[in-house]
Amino acid sequence: MSTSVERFDERARREADRFGQTVVRRGELLRHPVYTRVMHWLVAITFVLSLLTGFAIYSPWLYRWLAPLFGGGPMTRFLHPWFGLFFDIFFLFQFFNWFAPMTWTKADSRFVRRIREYATNEEKLEPEETGFFNGGQKLYFWLIAVSGVLFLVTGLLLWFDDVVPRWLVALSYVLHDIAALVMLAGFIVHIYEGTAAQPGTFRSMVDGTVTRAWAWTHHPAWYREVTGRDPRADYEQASRRRAERAGAVAEWERGQDARRLDTGLGSPPPPDRDEA
Questions:
Q1: Which of 13, 181, 256, 271 measures 20 to 30 Å from 146, CA to CA?
Q2: Do residues 73 and 63 make contact, with C-beta atoms less than 8 angstroms apart?
Q3: Which 8-state DSSP code applies to residue 270?
């Protein structure tokens, strides 16, 4: 199966590259090609639409706020299963796209055991064994996969509730709602981790690239794989350069202060820190 999935994914990537391109600038690495980014946003958009229409149906209080956005109650009820169906279809393609890198490893189990340190950013660098995806990202991926199956099965039963037993419809309501709430919680964490917690992550799903510093900080094993360089050595070298630049600027400022005291005259502005 793995080989067939990889062949299909490779063909899909080539086709997507015909309609778009990713510009990798100096100091950057290609993180996500066009096809991956398109699938990611299609999954995200259809999930949000499914969520909003689902909440409109689920809650009378939310109904009066959300249903008008989709043309009223009947239209919301009509659109919800279609949004859910397209979510499952798009995620299926994303599943094929990420099947190989999402395979669980011992490194991921170790990551989960230190998930608290990761969530609170207690460590500046991730362990050197962290590859293209870390254990938390893989957990979220497989959570979506399981929830997607539940969405599809229970959604179809609810869609055609006139041809299935009532107890099965009632059970489907419960499972459908639980899957939605679990995915909503994961979605919130996903947004936080992709923006505020790890600056630079969001841009990888916009223009497809990340900085080398981001790569050696969050995914050292992947950085080593694509560059052939030691992530820790490059991190330490960059840290020394930053310290040297900061020292040079501080020394220049002290010199300017001394001359200003000697002459009583003003001084030109300090050099840009990035140029020092």
A1: 13
A2: yes
A3: P
- Regarding whether 272 and 141 lie in a shared domain, the answer is no
Q: What is the pLDDT of residues 192-223, one digit of tens each?
A: 999 988 899 999 999 999 999 999 999 999 99
The Cβ of residue 103 has, within 10 Å, a number of other Cβ atoms equal to 12
Looking at the fold, whether 151 and 254 belong to one and the same domain comes out as no
CATH number of the domain where residue 55 is located: 1.20.950.20
91 and 203, same domain (yes or no): yes
Task: Give the pLDDT confidence of 106-162 residue by residue, as tens digits.
Answer: 999 999 998 888 877 777 889 999 999 999 999 999 999 999 999 999 999 999 988
Confidence of residue 169 (pLDDT cuts 50, 70, 90): very high
Residues 176 and 255 in one domain: no
Q: d(Cα 12, Cα 7) in Å, to the nearest integer? A: 9
The C-alpha atoms of residue 236 and residue 166 are separated, in whole angstroms, by: 64
Q: Which residues form the domain of 235?
A: 230-276
> What residues contact 273, with CB distance under 8 A and at least 6 apart?
245, 246, 249
Domain shared by 110 and 199, yes or no = yes
**Cα distances (Å, whole numbers) of residue 79 to 65, 169, 182:** 16, 19, 22
User: Is the pLDDT assigned to residue 37 strictly greater than 50?
Assistant: yes
As for how many domains the chain has, the answer is 2
pTM of the entire predicted model: 0.85
Whole-number mean pLDDT of the chain?
89
Q: Dihedral, CA atoms, 12, 17, 19, 20, nearest 10 degrees?
A: 130
Q: For the chain, how many residues are written?
A: 276
| R_g of the chain computed on alpha carbons | 25
The residues, ordered by sequence, that sit 6+ positions from 157 with a Cβ below 8 Å of its Cβ are: 164, 168, 169, 172
